Amino acid sequence: MSFVNPFFLIALAGAAVPILIHLLTRDRIQHVTFSTLRFFAKGAKLVVRRKKFQELILLLMRVALVVLLALAFARPFFGSKTVDPRHEYATARVVVLDVSGSMRRPGLPDALKNEATTAVNSLTEGQDAGALITFSNTVDIQVPFGDKFAALKTAAEAVTPGYGGTNIAEALHKADELLQGIRAKQKEIVLVSDLQRGGWSYFKGDWKLASDVKLTLHAAKPSDPGTGLGIIEMSAPSSLVLDKQPSSIAVRIANYTSQPRDKLEVALLLNGKKVDDQQVNIPANGTVAVRFRHVFDTPGDNPGSIVVGSDSAAISECTAYFNARTVPRIPVLLINGRPSANPQIDAAFFLNKALVPTDESPFEVRSLPVDQVTPENVAAAKVVILANVGHVLLRSGIRCPRYAGGAWWWHSLSSW
Amino acid sequence: MKRKGLIILISDLLDDPARVISALQHFRFQGHEVLVFQVMDNGELEFSFTTMTEFTDLETGQKVVVSPEGMKPVYLEELRQFLNDYEKGCGGIHAEYKLFDTGKPLELALSEYLYRRSRMG
Fold this sequence. Notes:
The complex is a heterodimer of chains A (416) and B (121).
Chain A: E1 2-3, H1 16-25, E2 30-34, H2 44-74, E3 76-77, E4 88-98, H3 108-121, E5 129-135, E6 139-146, H4 150-158, H5 168-180, E7 183-193, E8 213-219, E9 229-235, E10 239-241, E11 247-255, E12 261-270, E13 273-282, E14 287-294, E15 300-308, E16 319-327, E17 330-336, H6 347-355, E18 363-369, H7 375-380, E19 383-387, H8 392-396, E20 407-409
Helix pairs in contact in A: 1-2, 3-4
Chain B: E1 6-11, H1 17-29, E2 33-40, H2 42-46, E3 53-57, E4 63-66, H3 68-92, E5 96-101, H4 106-119
């Protein structure tokens, strides 16, 4: 077993923290002279033993949690033999494969597989070292560096594009990092991609490849040239409360061609049906932002998409998908036992602000003084909060909602 | 005792309830009125301990280590059963029973009780 990010193993030292906490906070035994032991002598040993066992289990779970977190960040892998850091290889090659949605276009999956297999097969076992990375929005090390290539060949033959976006810069960055950990006369990255321009849009900063790393590009060309357009950014709500306020769904569309595109149709689809559209003009090699406003008034999932161009719905880079999940607001009745004109001493005021900090809160709070509460108010609420309320409610004959956990007890309720 | 009298027993009654009630029954057979005042410490009644504690039995010297959070429900249930045995036992022989918490002044509680009893005739 080896690790992709072995420096995270330093965090294993953190396993000492729960042990220290356990030792520092364990119960000190106090001594008490008591009138009789007749009421607990029978079960005492059992309870102590059970408590010690529970504490031990708790300690082990805490230690295991820290260890697992450290291991997860270190990313262990099992597979081909890893490289010998002292050995200098003739060639160290990282094969970087684009598995974004745009690589699903006709002809590209086969080209991807062929280029990957060729890049792997040209390595010589014993002399060279190889690794394989795939990327879309995220980067995955499929096979870490090794000098036995069975796993590498299997991974190259099994590679298939997915549905994600393209983040070429991050993939190259990761490949460059891998190459820094190995000694070789020649270090190289073989990149197989359709080289979408949108693939560079994530790149921010001034990072560049190390000077001793050679980059070889294998540009995969689809049998269908595509539209030269692509959605490079999208913003859509993922979770909403059900109300009549419109929400924004926005995309940024890039035109990769040297020709401006005028009156381009951009459509908003919800549940497979077009609900809105706009026409936009995009300059050559430029981008444009398009925003739709829509009222999501159907509770539950609202799967939708934005499609650029009337004839490009099937092309993945021209379609962006989202799901806006709407939930109805929860009616909350806040019964205020001590209302005050001064909000600083009014507990209900702070509760109300905590529950409804913005209009997007899932709660709809109605605050009433005790003497104005009616059984109808209570029945209409899903949650009843009693803030500084005493025995008055019982005398009023008001019953809480039947739902379990439907009432919260605020302090000063000893008279219930 | 030839004349009928008033027997007042003030004790923590940490003994077998059946034996104590049986002893008190003799007084009742002789026609005496019996009042039983059981006094217990607040710590004994509420078991308000929070950390691991080694308890030493005051009378036998026996020691036991207890985790209060786990033991409290067991203790309180045993205690409830114990007090219930006395209350029911006293009721069965028509003796009056009253539990006193030593956290409250006994003389005040006692005088208040006796005053209330005298008012009831």
